[in-house]
Amino acid sequence: MNILIAGDGEVGFNLAKMLSVVEDHNIIVVDPHRDLLQLLESNTDILTITGDSCSVNILEKANIKNTDLLISVLHDEQTNLLTCIIGKRLGAKKTIARTNSMELYKEDKREFFQALGVDKFVCPEQIASTEIVNLLRQTGATEVFNFGNGQLQLLLIRFGENALIVHKTLSQIAKENPTLDFRVVAIHRNRKTIIPNGEDLIWPGDLAYIITKPECVKCLFEISGKKEKLINSAMIIGAGRIGRKTALRIEQNMKVKMVEIDRERCHDAAEELSSTLVINGDATDIDMLHDEGIENVDALIAVTNNTESNILACLHAKKAGVYTTIALVENIDYIDIAQTVGIDTIINKKLITASYIARFTLNAEVESSKVLSGVDAEVLEFVVKPGAKVARYPIRRLSLPDGSIIGGIIRGKESYIAVGNFQIEPCDRVVVFAEPYAVRKLPAFFN
Fold first, then answer.
1. Do 410 and 148 touch, CB atoms closer than 8 A?
2. Residue 162 backbone phi and psi in degrees, to 5
3. What is the CA radius of gyration of the chain?
4. Burial of 421 by CB count in 10 Å (0-12 exposed, 13-18 middle, 19+ buried)?
5. For the segment 76-125, what is each residue's pLDDT rounded down to a tens digit?
6. How far is the C-alpha of 136 from the C-alpha of 253, rounded, in Å?
7. Which CB contacts under 8 angstroms, 24+ apart, belong to 145-150?
8. Predicted TM-score (pTM) of this structure
C-alpha cells in the first residue's frame, strides 16, 4: 500500500514508524519540520519531504496520484481537512483527517466533508475521553475496550497476592470456574509479553489481557481479587480538550473538580461546563491539592500536556488514598515505568490515533482495533468473508501465525469465547490478539 502521512509532530512520526515495519507499505511523510524528518530518516527507510501538505506542488512531489491512503494528523484541524480535500482531488484513494471537535462527527457534517473528499475522521481527544469514562465505570480493570456493542470486552487486570487465581494454571482456573466465560490472550510479565496456553501459571504482579462477556466481569474481578467501587467524585487535572470532554460526560453523574494552572483556560472551561468546579491552581502544589480535598475524591484524572506532572499528580493521589488514578502519558518510553510505580491506567494519544488508523492499512475488513499500552501488540476485530480460511476448520485446527491468538467471536447478537472446537462462520466478527510481526499475516485468514 502507498501511504502518505502529513504531520507536524510526534503523532505523524510515531505512526510512520509503526507502519514502516510492514514490508509491502511504501510510506512518504510530509512535515514542515526538517529536524524531525532527519530523525525519522536516521531510524527508518521512509522517504520524507519538508513542506506544507496543503501545497499542490508538495503533494504532487509526494506522488499523491498513486497514493492509496492519505493520513493528515497535524495539530490544526483546518489544515488536515484541506490536505485531505486537495489530496483526494489530486488522486488519493482514501483519506483520514485528525480533528479536534466532535461537531464533524454529526451525520450532516460528515456527509458534507465526505462529498468534498474527507473519508474518515479521527479525534484522539474524544477517544481518550471515551476510554476514561469506560474506566470509571469498571474500576477493577486498568484498561477497557469494547467490541461490537459491548458484546465482548477486553480487560487489562493486574493480579495481586490476594487474587484467588494466582499460582494456578489457566486450565485449572477454567476448571474451577466452569460458568465463567473468559480467555486470557496475553500475559505481560517482567516487561515481556507471553501468549499463554492452558498450562501457563498466573503469578502475582502479572498484567493479563482478558477477553470476556459483560455479564462475567463481576465474577472475573472477584477471583482476581479486585473490588469494584462506584465512582461518585473525580478531580481532573488539566482543562485541555481531553479534560473538558471528560468533564462534560461525567459531571451529571458525579461531583467533579477541575484544576488548571492557566487562568484563561479556566475561564473557557467554566463557561463550557455546567456543574464542574473549576479551580485555578498548580497541580504540582501538594498543599493546594489537599486544600481542595484530594483525599476525598474517588478518582484522579491527570491529562495536562506535561507527562511528568501527570505522573506526579497520580502518585500524590495514590498516597492520599484516591481509589483510581488515570494519567495521560505522551512519552511512550514512560508507559512501562508509569504502570510499575502504581498508576492504575495510562492514556496515550499517539497509540489511540494509531489504533484507529492502523486498521485501514490492512487488506481485510477490520471493524475495530486497539493498539495496547505498555505491550507491543494489537487487538483487532476482523469480519470473516465467505470462503475464508478461518471458517474452514475448528479453531484448534487453524494454523494461525505465531504471535496471535483468537479471543472471542461475535455472531449477530450473540458472543462467544474462543475454544478449540468452536467453528467460525462467514460474517462472524473475530477478536484477535496479535504481536506486530503477526498482524500483517492475519488478513489472509479472514479474506
1. yes
2. -85, -5
3. 22
4. exposed
5. 999 999 999 999 999 999 999 999 876 776 777 888 888 999 999 988 88
6. 11
7. 145/370, 145/379, 147/367, 147/368, 147/381, 147/408, 147/410, 147/429, 147/431, 148/381, 148/410, 148/415, 148/429, 150/214
8. 0.81
